Known about the structure:
The protein has 308 residues and is of the alpha+beta class. Helices cover 23% and strands 26% of the residues. The chain is built from six helices and twelve strands. α1 crosses α4. The relative contact order is 0.22. Mean pLDDT is 84; it is low at 1-13 and 15-19.
Amino acid sequence: MASPLIVRSNYGDLFTSSMLPVLEEMFTHNLALHPSIREMFCNVKRTQRDIWQASEMGDFQNFVETPEGIDYTLVRQRAGANKTLVPKKYGLGFSISEEIVEDGKFDFIADAVKKLAESAIDSREQSAIDLINNAYSSVTSWDGQTLFASAHTLPSGLTFRNQLASASDLSQSALDTMISDFETQFIRDSGKLAMIKPKYLLVHPSQRRYAKELVGSDLKADTADNNMNSIRDEGLVVISSARLADPDSWQLLSAPIDNGLQIIERKGIETKAAGPDLGFMNDSIVYKSRYREIVGVTHPYGVFGSGT
């Protein structure tokens, strides 16, 4: 019988001060096992700077009739709102005794790497969902108002809301009202409609099946009448997250290009390891992971909630 290819002695140099390729592969593999939903509804950008600034200009007025031979009307754009966001560093690690390595406890080490990858995924997903969890308290847009508010103020002084006038649990009628509000409440600085369409219905898993009935059934839900379910034509996609703090919470979200939910990546997830040269006083080996990013809000367009 041929000698085994993977034996303990082959991995005597696993824990040096350089990156550990085997554990790195384990870590990357486990990251890929947990698909992200935050990138479905958040803008994902990258920056090489220590800050990220969002600046907007006001919209233009409607076109005006221009007779033959007459100069076009030239207008000046009004300065819009702006906001500055600063990247933060997130990280975690663990230490291993050299004895564990010496005794071949690779299953233990692999499990620790797996759980660290899961922690990295959960941390990033939670930070994005917390934009919604804290949308009525600490998460603010460029006008200083909370993300969901009854009166967002534009530079021109006009206001608009992005929450239901009266808070309501998810239902056929409440969803119908929010869809209508979504298309009529968002206005630009001049007062023109923003013309943003909802794409996602974000709910807690406890409401996922009901939400799918509301948006996907041929007939209206919650009624014995055989009325056509016109909401189905909206093409809404239901996404759910157990990270929503309020099980009754539900929101309509646009495609990322039309909303102000931002993920600005300064440094992607990376791992580092160090061997006995670092932990020579206690014979320890350390493994860590980190990333730097901004998860925040610039403007309140494209998101609509049921106020709490």
